[in-house]
Amino acid sequence: MSAPLDASRLEITPVATPSKLRPNDELVFGKTFTDHMLTIEWTSTEGWGNPQIKPYGNLSLDPSSVVFHYAFELFEGMKAYRTEDDKITMFRPDMNMIRMNKSAARICLPTFDGEQLIELIGKLIEQDKHMVPQGQGYSLYIRPTLIGTTPTLGVSTPDRALLFVICSPVGPYYKTGFKAVRLEATDYATRAWPGGVGDKKLGANYAPCVLPQLQAAERGYQQNLWLFGPEHNITEVGTMNAFFVFKDNKTGKKELVTAPLDGTILEGVTRDSILHLCRERLDSNEWEVNERYCTIDEVAEKSKKGELVEAFGSGTAAVVSPIKEIGWKGEEINVPLLPGEQSGPLTKQVAEWVAAIQYGKEKHGNWTRVIADLN
Q1: Which cofactor does the UniProt annotation name (predicted)?
Q2: Is the pTM of this model over 0.85?
Q3: Cα separation of 331 and 353, whole Å?
């Protein structure tokens, strides 16, 4: 019987001299890394090997490893936060583990006990807890990755794999910080399609999106608003889930809309959190919260009628990102913002709700877990 992933078998090799955390203003997203990494090897015959926390360093892989040739690779994006009372917490890590296992199963890589990996990530962060930055908008980005390492040029189920976790102290994902972005509604390239893997966090989903993003950037847009099908359904925005707020001029009732989980969009943890919080906290007499298809033409039409109230993207990296303008068919769809501010009122409220929970100012069920203490 192959061995399961077991946190109790952890081996730790600490660095000789710990690094110092850079000042917040020098933290560029994903460019600075902590002193240690977690690695766990897997084989089809032996199962999961001993987890190892060791100094951050290069991986050694055979050039024929299937990850290089056939994209046997998946990853997750998570964050740890430093609270005001100097505790380190993780935000809804169980959700990331569920999604990571779904991604693994889809591309024939080994699954694992998510609670064991959460425990191991906690041990990893414990080693480098001094490198979790302090302050709103700053956190420790956690990148668990699973790759197939079988050395072969044949296309088949990998019989060897490597799970590794690296961490990066980060500031705001966008250099502009919490500022509204311009999007290009994109129908000339397709991010995902029914029956595909758009709902899985595979590296293969990301590389093909870079060229359309560069093309949009040449036209002055920060991200793509991905459309699908002849109806031009809105799916995602860049690497985030998309939300729109409409207001019925006749009834005055508002509607928060995001695309349904139909297999073409990522099952975002921040998306799920926002839907939960809005359904709990918004007055149902004034609001509807719906997961439904919404087309770019509907957004354009509602904008002309004054019924488009606001829009924003959500994701682990950016958390909440306000949208101020969408380019479509040579015209600009303007999204209202609060006077003198960079977001609409719900966008601002949602960002505050989520941040309060992430930074330990407010408790919400079991959404946060304390994994280290700096006291």
Answers
A1: pyridoxal 5'-phosphate
A2: yes
A3: 34
